[in-house]
Amino acid sequence: MGLADLHMHTIYSYDGTASISAILTRARRIGLDVIAITDHDEIAGSLKALNLAPKYSVEVIPGSEVTTAEGDLLALNITEKIQRGCPLIETVLKVGELGGFCIAPHPMASGFGMKSLSTYSILKALRNPDVAHTLIAIETYNATTIDRLSNHYARILAERLDITQTASSDAHVVEAIGLGATEFDGHTAQHLITALQTGNVRHRKQKEWNSVRILGSWAANYVGSAFTRLANTA
Fold first, then answer.
1. Domain ranges of the chain
2. 10 Å Cβ neighbour count for 208?
3. pLDDT tens across 136-169, in order?
4. What is the CATH number of domain 2-231?
5. DSSP letter string over 121-183?
6. pLDDT, tens digit, for every residue of 51-72?
7. Residue 31 pLDDT
8. In whole angstroms, what is the distance from residue 136 CA to residue 126 CA?
9. CA 22, CA 227: separation in Å to the nearest integer?
10. Which pTM does this prediction carry?
11. Which of 208-213's residues contact partners 24+ apart within 8 Å by CB, and which partners?
């Protein structure tokens, strides 16, 4: 049984606090087989993690959380930066051209600067068969969203669409990595991708943090990581 966390942020995100080495160390320690580093509109940290990952016995799927004109989108298994601000359909098609795949993260979630895809945007995009080939999953459990109801609504949407459901941490601090994760048969990134394409995945959830802990932990780590973020080193 493999375990993956496909949504997390590093100091290469404007709101991330964790270094690449700290993330890889944490992933190995808690038993993650595969991770995806998805910094906001940036891929440099993910590519750095990809190069370092063999030393930690963890596989990295390179990616980014892209700000589309309609909300955030996880673009995975890509090695090129995706232009932000483009329409959702255009963005998904670009990811497909690069050989990647997409997951809709925290759909319908609101508050604290969240930029989430709406039900309408997802439904409209999936009417395009090329989009449906690349946008293969919806994140129906985001462990650190403040808007807990959005997980419930995302699950209902995914069930009605009969699309794969993933669980992730959306960690902005290293301690949150693995709070939400996706189980799959096998242990490699390729096994995971196949499982996502076929819907053969399951959720694994750790004890949920309350909103005070989520925000407090982020604030403390954000201040503590200021020098590292400014230096843009890991």
1. 2-231
2. 13
3. 999 999 999 999 999 999 999 999 999 999 999 9
4. 3.20.20.140
5. HHHHHHTSHHHHHHEEEEEEEETT-S-THHHHHHHHHHHHHT-EEEEE--BSSGGGTTSEEEE
6. 999 999 999 999 999 999 999 9
7. 97
8. 9
9. 15
10. 0.96
11. 208/143, 208/179, 209/143, 209/144, 209/176, 209/179, 211/146
